[in-house]
Amino acid sequence: GPRITFDFGRDAADSPSLAGLPNIELGTEVGLFLESFVASWRFKADIRKEVGGGHGGLLLNGEAAWGSRWSEKASLILGARLTYMDETYAESYFGVSGAASTASGKTAFSPTGGFRDANAYAQIIYDFTQAFYVATEFRATTFFEQAVDSPITQVDAFVTGSVLVGYRF
Questions:
Q1: At residue 101, does pLDDT exceed 90?
Q2: pTM
Q3: Taking the mean position of all CA atoms in its chain, how far away is CA 41?
């Protein structure tokens, strides 16, 4: 189906590592998504192009996940995701122009498009009732060459965790 999302951009004042670099404005992304379930497997993909004044680039995502019930109330989902960026997106988020190099003191860097990152995740969902649930997620992400080689990037990989309290209508 169709999708419209927002990329919140980047404010150079938010991090010392971005000092002297240009801001990236809020952008509107349009594209398509696909989600399919086959037995215990879930497959997702999307393509989105920024068209509203932000990074101006294109992103493609592909994801596969397997899920199963542990018990009557608990489920486990294991998955992996891969993200591709075009050259415009790479330049916006990971590039350092000559002028930005002078202003920031960072080495000039002109990335090309390619795979941005890959991640693996585990989700645990616990249903308190048919409607009320809590979901936790742990995700490990690693950047690929064009993102890692950027003088802006401070880490090669990172781990995140989240907790969501939900209600199904």
A1: yes
A2: 0.89
A3: 21
Three-state SS for 87-137 is HHHHHHHHCECHHHHHHHCCCCECCCCEEEEEEEEEEEEEECCCCEEEEEE
Buried b (16+ CB within 10 A) or exposed e, 99-109: ebbeebebeeb
Q: Which of 122, 131, 139, 140 is nearest to 70 (CA)?
A: 122
Q: What is the DSSP letter of 167?
A: E
CB of 27 within 8 A of CB of 9? yes
- The alpha carbon of 52 is separated from its chain's Cα centroid by a whole number of angstroms, namely 19
In order of 27, 85, 93, the CA distances from 113 in angstroms are 19, 5, 11
